[in-house]
């Protein structure tokens, strides 16, 4: 978890949308891609979802707002097809909460290269909720200003304030997350052949198995 905290901020914003969807906001902390780990960022996102579910139960739905400010081609070069494929499979087939929207704001000029990597693994339904925004104003019809941080022109406080409070909250939940890592599905009881990532993707390994540090 510490690795992710050093390279990215991912926080649930304090006010839901008018449709009562929880907004998860993410942004890189460093434009230098040297220490960037896509797998660590995804793992951190899943930890956050686990903590939210533990404390709030099943939320009405998630809306992702991903701020691309600071993203470089160096970050893109560190993406792996296998991890992209696994994560998008999780979003579309296994995520316990409905995903209502994915909004990329402050999109970079090379967004087309990123889309070329991810589109082959996205179903029509996921593509339909993907929205690109070159400026925050076009985000407001989907995520109202009262829900957004002031850095995006919103009224829900500063990112620094929310980040400081929520990061400490995640640290306070460290023991819970460690215990959660020990919970495993007993694939021997699955009807038919047991499944793992190798059975689904033809490869071994899973970004959910990264260590909690």
UniProtKB/TrEMBL annotation:
It comes from the Eukaryota. GO terms for molecular function: phosphatidylinositol bisphosphate binding. Residues 1-160 form the CRAL-TRIO domain. GO terms for cellular component: membrane. SUPFAM superfamilies: CRAL/TRIO domain (SSF52087). InterPro entries: CRAL-TRIO_dom, CRAL-TRIO_dom_sf. This is Retinaldehyde-binding protein 1.
């Amino acid at each position: 978890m510490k690795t992710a905290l050093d390279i990215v901020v991912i926080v649930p914003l304090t006010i839901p949308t008018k449709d009562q969807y929880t907004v998860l906001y993410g942004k890189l902390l460093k434009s230098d891609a040297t220490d960037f780990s896509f797998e660590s960022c995804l793992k951190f996102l899943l930890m956050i979802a686990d903590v939210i579910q533990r404390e709030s139960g099943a939320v009405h739905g998630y809306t992702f707002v991903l701020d691309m400010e600071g993203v470089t081609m160096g970050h893109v070069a560190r993406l792996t097809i296998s991890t992209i494929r696994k994560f998008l499979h999780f979003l579309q087939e296994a995520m316990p909460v409905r995903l209502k929207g994915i909004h990329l704001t402050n999109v970079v000029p090379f967004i087309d290269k990123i889309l070329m990597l991810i589109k082959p693994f996205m179903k029509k339904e996921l593509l339909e909720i993907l929205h690109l925004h070159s400026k925050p104003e076009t985000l407001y019809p989907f995520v109202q200003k009262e829900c957004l941080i002031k850095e995006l022109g919103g009224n829900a406080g500063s990112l620094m304030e929310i980040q400081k409070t929520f990061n400490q909250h995640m640290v306070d939940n460290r023991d819970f997350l460690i215990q959660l890592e020990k919970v495993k599905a007993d694939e021997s009881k699955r009807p038919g052949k047991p499944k793992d990532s190798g059975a689904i993707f033809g490869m071994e390994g899973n970004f959910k198995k990264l260590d909690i540090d």
